[in-house]
Design goal:
38% of the residues lie in helices and 10% in strands. It has a single domain, classed as Alpha/Beta hydrolase fold, catalytic domain (Rossmann fold, 3-Layer(aba) Sandwich). It is globular and about 50 Å long. The longest helix is centred in the N-terminal third of the chain and has 20 residues. The chain is of the alpha/beta class and 274 residues long. Helix 2 packs across helix 3. It starts with a helix and ends with a helix. Strand 5, helix 10 and strand 6 form a beta-alpha-beta unit.
């Protein structure tokens, strides 16, 4: 609202598969084929379509882009695989960019997520985080606080900046849904330390990519001006990985480490003083 109140024309995109973005010309949301996507498809198909829609509607040639977490992942995919879109970006503000994530492999919940995704029911590319967690959290004030602590264990603890009164409103919109393949793709880049396309296994990789390993995204093709914002208490996007990413940028415009030591992954969106 801050940017809108200052007179900027603000457009908000919805990632494929969330509660606001489940439309499809041919596929039902109940089908496995609908959920057969990761953030690669969001970056290659969806984000370019969103940008073109905004530019065509507003009759502009370029725009400013603000991405948080996966919103940064998909942006780098777009610019690396469809480099013509670099010319449509005035600036990219990357908040907690989930791009290089090798340091996240020490996260205490990583093995739990991997086991969860090995469940045969889950691995059929059905959507995740589509309601059960939110319903439990909103049962009472006690369950709400329990959920707050559960979220802190994943993203980093910062109780001082957490608005518990607004939490039920947040839960009305977040989590909004994801595919299992998205999560598996993140696990792949965490475990391998390679910001690469989806790994289908050796035989399918040979068929799809003509090589044993999925190709690494070519970061030299990402030429848009990029500003990076990150924090020390982010358990999902480690400070070391962010600084490594910044060193690899072709057109770095600056990096900002939030001075608050407790600032976590979601504080960029949720913090009282965000």
């Amino acid at each position: 609202y801050i940017l809108a109140d200052l007179g900027y024309d603000v457009w908000l995109g919805n990632a494929r598969g969330n509660r606001y973005s489940k439309g499809h010309n041919t596929l039902s949301v109940e089908s496995e084929a609908f959920w057969d996507f990761s953030w690669h498809e969001i970056g290659y198909y969806d984000l370019p379509a969103m940008i073109n829609y905004v530019l065509n509607t507003t009759n502009n040639d370029k725009l400013h882009y603000i991405g948080h977490s996966q919103g940064c992942t998909s942006f780098f995919v777009m610019c690396a695989t469809r480099p013509e879109f670099n010319n449509k970006i005035i600036s990219m503000q990357a908040l907690a960019p989930a791009v290089y994530m090798s340091e996240t492999k020490e996260h205490p919940y990583l093995r739990i997520v991997e086991l969860y995704l090995k469940n045969p029911v889950i691995t059929r590319n059905k959507g995740l985080l589509n309601g059960e967690f939110k319903q439990i959290c909103k049962m009472s004030s006690d369950t709400l606080k329990t959920c707050m602590e559960a979220i802190f264990s994943v993203i980093g603890r910062n109780k001082k900046e957490f608005n518990l009164k607004m939490f039920p409103v947040v839960l009305g919109h977040y989590p909004a849904g994801s595919s299992a393949k998205q999560i598996r793709h993140f696990l792949q880049i965490i475990n391998t330390g390679r910001f690469a396309e989806y790994d289908y296994g050796t035989s399918e990789n040979l068929f799809k990519y003509r090589q044993f390993l999925p190709p690494i995204y070519n970061m030299t093709r990402v030429t848009a001006p990029i500003y990076i914002h990150y924090s020390a208490n982010d358990l999902l996007v480690n400070q070391i990985d962010v600084e490594h990413l910044y060193e690899d940028l072709v057109n770095p415009m600056g990096k900002y480490l939030v001075p608050m030591k407790e600032f976590n992954h979601m504080d960029f969106l949720w913090a009282i003083n965000a």
